[in-house]
Amino acid sequence: MSELLLEGSTTPADAAPPLTRTRLRRRPGAKLVTGSVMVVVIVLFGLIAPLFTQDPRAVSDIGLAGPTGAHLLGTTQTGQDVLAQLAYGTRGSLLIGVLVGLLTLILSAFFGIIGSYVGGALDELFSLISNVMLIIPGLPLMIVIGSYVQHKSIFLVAGVLALTGWAAGARVLRGQTLSLRNRDYVLAARVSGEKTWRVITVEILPNLLPVMSSGFVFSIIFAILGEAGLSFIGIGSTGSLTWGTMLANAQNGQALLLGGWWWFVPPGLLIALFGCGLSLINFSIDEVINPRLRAPRLVKLQRKAS
Amino acid sequence: MHLLRKIGFYLIALWAAVTLNFLIPRLLPGNPVDTLIGKLSQQGPVSPGLRKALNALFGTNSNENLWQQYVGYLNGLVHGNFGVSVTYFPTPVIDVIGQAIPWTLGLVGLSTVIAALLGIALGTFAGWRRGTWVDSLIPGTTILQSVPYFWLALILVYFLASMLGWFPLSGGYDVNSTTPGLSGDFIGSVIRYGTLPALTIVISSIGGWLLGMRNMMVSTLSDDYVATAEAKGLSPIRVMITYAARNAVLPSITGFAISLGFVVAGSLVTEKVFSYPGIGNALLDAVSNNDYALMQGLFLVITVAVLAANLIVDIFYGFIDPRTRSRA
């Protein structure tokens, strides 16, 4: 995932004048590195740690106990190892995040790119659908859908999250495609008789990659937060273990009243840090897309000189 | 013309929400009536009449086709008939909603306004001081933005209410010593109980406003007219506020639509943590009791509220940014 993002960030830097480029390069770099390190560490934790931890569901009679040598992050009310739960929960949340990210990418690309490229009534219809989906509050809709289905697979939850989260991305993609479709090189491709799908995939899509990767990253944050919310309410996917279900269990297990901070602080902290890492990556992508955001250093120098 | 187009769009959005609300229970697998009857029969015998009434409500009645059900459903909505709540049986759904609305409206409305004003002010400052130490605070705000509302609520409850005892743990007002009404005691109690939920919403939503405003300030400040204003020797405060911030704030206002959705979602779950007697708590009660009528009514009310807020902002936006009017 981070490879894709790094690739995206190296492409269109042509907007900044060459003199300032080297100077400005350092700042987005720092954000990108910090963000990537945070994300990679958490992803590795989710991938590798479950291999070494104890059984996350193994119940013991210790009850709610603080961190000790045997249980590095303490235990839950039923004596389950919090570290093990955290490791498996990380894996569950990341899986949901990536699934929703991909689904959102497909949906927003479909509605955003195809509509605006074809234009006319289809564009009107597609942008109406995206605007309506954008404005209808997502979580209540998720709650209504989620509560009608009794046994929810992880794919259903991902589907519901994607269904309520694709609209913002579609709107951004539509705007970008509108500006691209009338560029000379696209017109040239069309005049020379290239098929529509080829113009879209070969000529337009590569130029949308930075915007799409930014949307992908955002939808992962959205999905992990959304899933955590749904699980906390108690309508997440059945039998799964995620950061959200851990928090829900902690709340139901009276961790707050009993002072079991080791139970509810780590999952939320990981959500926040992971989201922060992804946001930092997103900022550096944004700075690539919109060079004006990188201007601060230059402006400051000018002001000092004046 | 611009206004008509806007209103037309909101009407379509409203129709879409109503129709989704109608279709979801009918298209999804599983029979809500069976679930509900199963739940009710644990409490006592279920009369055949109730099953019939529930069938009519959820459209599991096979005698009518989908279109007839739809017309009947719309007719019910127009007359304010949302059905009867199971959780608070036999109170009509509309009454349950009526009792919960003021709490949420007060809490979410007030904290959104505070967060927006504070965030825009801080963002203006951060954008003005771009490239200085202020920039190093940005990663901090992104953490705030990624914090789940309900987790922040848990943390605040744990430290400020449970450990330090500064605030009450849960509820909307002191049930034991005050009664709802326009008394000073009651209002004081509402404020005391509402501070922590409001703080949660403000802290978790302020980051978005701040960052959006800061980025627009940075963009706007590199515009030529700002440089001209500086060159004319205008005071920095004046350039910052009446030249740069005034234009930079526009996208924050249009972004209201998206952010309001997030805030509403966040506060729904936040209300659960605090057992705050608002819409969110009612919705989650409805979910855990399979109270589909209440759930659907609440979904509609929340959607209508979000749509209305956005319509107001859109109309307002037409006044402050004349370009949108001339373009349409």
Automatic annotation (TrEMBL), chain A:
<feature type="region of interest" description="Disordered">
    <location>
        <begin position="1"/>
        <end position="20"/>
    </location>
</feature>
<feature type="transmembrane region" description="Helical">
    <location>
        <begin position="261"/>
        <end position="285"/>
    </location>
</feature>
<protein>
    <submittedName>
        <fullName>ABC transporter permease</fullName>
    </submittedName>
</protein>
<keyword id="KW-0813">Transport</keyword>
<comment type="similarity">
    <text>Belongs to the binding-protein-dependent transport system permease family.</text>
</comment>
<dbReference type="InterPro" id="IPR000515">
    <property type="entry name" value="MetI-like"/>
</dbReference>
<feature type="transmembrane region" description="Helical">
    <location>
        <begin position="32"/>
        <end position="52"/>
    </location>
</feature>
<keyword id="KW-0472">Membrane</keyword>
<feature type="transmembrane region" description="Helical">
    <location>
        <begin position="94"/>
        <end position="118"/>
    </location>
</feature>
<keyword id="KW-1003">Cell membrane</keyword>
<dbReference type="InterPro" id="IPR050366">
    <property type="entry name" value="BP-dependent_transpt_permease"/>
</dbReference>
<dbReference type="InterPro" id="IPR035906">
    <property type="entry name" value="MetI-like_sf"/>
</dbReference>
<dbReference type="Pfam" id="PF00528">
    <property type="entry name" value="BPD_transp_1"/>
</dbReference>
<keyword id="KW-0812">Transmembrane</keyword>
<feature type="transmembrane region" description="Helical">
    <location>
        <begin position="125"/>
        <end position="148"/>
    </location>
</feature>
<feature type="transmembrane region" description="Helical">
    <location>
        <begin position="154"/>
        <end position="173"/>
    </location>
</feature>
<keyword id="KW-1133">Transmembrane helix</keyword>
<feature type="domain" description="ABC transmembrane type-1">
    <location>
        <begin position="90"/>
        <end position="282"/>
    </location>
</feature>
Automatic annotation (TrEMBL), chain B:
<feature type="transmembrane region" description="Helical">
    <location>
        <begin position="248"/>
        <end position="269"/>
    </location>
</feature>
<comment type="similarity">
    <text>Belongs to the binding-protein-dependent transport system permease family.</text>
</comment>
<feature type="transmembrane region" description="Helical">
    <location>
        <begin position="7"/>
        <end position="24"/>
    </location>
</feature>
<feature type="transmembrane region" description="Helical">
    <location>
        <begin position="100"/>
        <end position="128"/>
    </location>
</feature>
<dbReference type="Pfam" id="PF00528">
    <property type="entry name" value="BPD_transp_1"/>
</dbReference>
<feature type="domain" description="ABC transmembrane type-1">
    <location>
        <begin position="101"/>
        <end position="313"/>
    </location>
</feature>
<protein>
    <submittedName>
        <fullName>Peptide ABC transporter permease</fullName>
    </submittedName>
</protein>
<keyword id="KW-1133">Transmembrane helix</keyword>
<dbReference type="InterPro" id="IPR035906">
    <property type="entry name" value="MetI-like_sf"/>
</dbReference>
<keyword id="KW-0813">Transport</keyword>
<feature type="transmembrane region" description="Helical">
    <location>
        <begin position="149"/>
        <end position="170"/>
    </location>
</feature>
<dbReference type="InterPro" id="IPR000515">
    <property type="entry name" value="MetI-like"/>
</dbReference>
<feature type="transmembrane region" description="Helical">
    <location>
        <begin position="190"/>
        <end position="211"/>
    </location>
</feature>
<keyword id="KW-0472">Membrane</keyword>
<keyword id="KW-0812">Transmembrane</keyword>
<feature type="transmembrane region" description="Helical">
    <location>
        <begin position="298"/>
        <end position="320"/>
    </location>
</feature>
